[in-house]
Amino acid sequence: MGILLAPLRAVQLARGTLFPWVPMFIGCGVAIWFAWPSEPAPVAYLGLAAAVLVLAVAALRGPDLARPLLVALACIAVGGLAAGFRGHAVQAPALEFRYYGPVQGRIIGIDRSGSDALRLTLDRVVLDRVAPNRTPLRVRVSVAGEPAFQPGQVVLLTAHLSAPEGPVEPGGFDFRRMAYFNQLGAVGYTRTPVMLWAEAEPGTQLINRLRSAMGAGMRAQMPSQAGAFAAGAMTGDRSGITLDTVQALRDSNLAHLLAISGMNLAFLIGFTFALIRYGVALVPVLALRVDARKVAAVLSLGVAWFYLLLSGSNVATERAFIMVAVMLGAVLLDRRALTLRSVAIAGVIILLWQPESLLSPGFQMSFAATVALIAGFGGLDGAVMRERLPRWVLPLFTLVLSSVLAGAATAPFAAAHFNRFTDYGLLANLLTVPVMSLVMAAGAVAALLTPLGLEALPLWVMEQASRWILFIAHWIAGLEGSVTPIKSPGPWVLPLISFGGAWIILWRGRARLAGLVPVAAALVLWSVAHRPLVLIESQAALVGRMGDQGRALSAANGAGFAAENWLADDGDLATQDQAAERAGFTGPKGRRAFDLGGLRAVSLTGKAAEAALPAACAAADLVVIGAWLEAPAPAGCLVIDRASLAQSGSLAVDVIDGGLRITPARRALRLWSGPGAPVPVTLLPRPDALLAAADP
Question: Which CATH number is associated with domain 99-204?
Answer without folding.
Answer: 2.40.50
